[in-house]
Amino acid sequence: MHEVALASSLLQLVLDNARQQGARSVRRVVVAIGTLSHVEPRALAQAFTSASMGTLAGEAELAIEEPPGSAWCFDCGDTVPLAKLGDDCPRCGGGKLVVNGGDEMRLKALEVL
Fold first, then answer.
1. SS in 3 state form for 23-39?
2. How far apart are CA 51 and CA 44, in angstroms?
3. Which residues of the chain have pLDDT under 70?
4. Residue-wise pLDDT tens digits, 48-57
5. Predicted pLDDT at 72
6. Model's pTM, two decimal places?
């Protein structure tokens, strides 16, 4: 389960940012986890909750946004929605796709006190 390592890295990023801002506590953390990212949002949330106990982020709400997948299709020359990696183009059935969205994991916002 790589979500434990990801949660630890996310927590470190959150704590570093909170300390730079002189925060006493972290109230809310917003992350984007794309549907093509190979990250299980619920597992990440559980791991983050466990990892953050006793830290500035111990009481923080973790809000997870899940941007949909998208890809550029070389066959039809358009950006198309992509439900999962390995799928063919939903418009033309072509298989030459390059993912251009929904594969990210990104810290979007941090609310601190």
1. CCCEEEEEEEECCCCCC
2. 10
3. 1
4. 999 999 999 9
5. 98
6. 0.90
* Per-position DSSP letters for 64-112, written without gaps between them: EE-PPPEEEETTTTEEEE-SSTTPPPTTT----EEEEES--EEEEEEEE
CA 26, 31, 36: angle at the middle one, nearest 5?
160
The token pair at 100 is 């251009």
The Cα 42–Cα 23 span in angstroms is 27
Predicted confidence at residue 1, as pLDDT, reads 62
Domains defined for the chain, CATH in brackets:
3-112 (3.30.2320.80)
Short-list 18, 10, 4, 9, CA closest to 56 = 18
Q: 4, exposed or middle or buried, with CB in 10 Å at 0-12, 13-18, 19+?
A: middle
What is the C-alpha separation between 20 and 11, in angstroms, rounded?
A: 14
> If you search the block for the tokens 């946004």, which residue do you land on?
65
Q: Per the structure block, which two tokens stand in for 102? A: 């929904």
| CB 71, CB 88: distance < 8 Å | no
Q: What is the pLDDT of residue 24?
A: 97
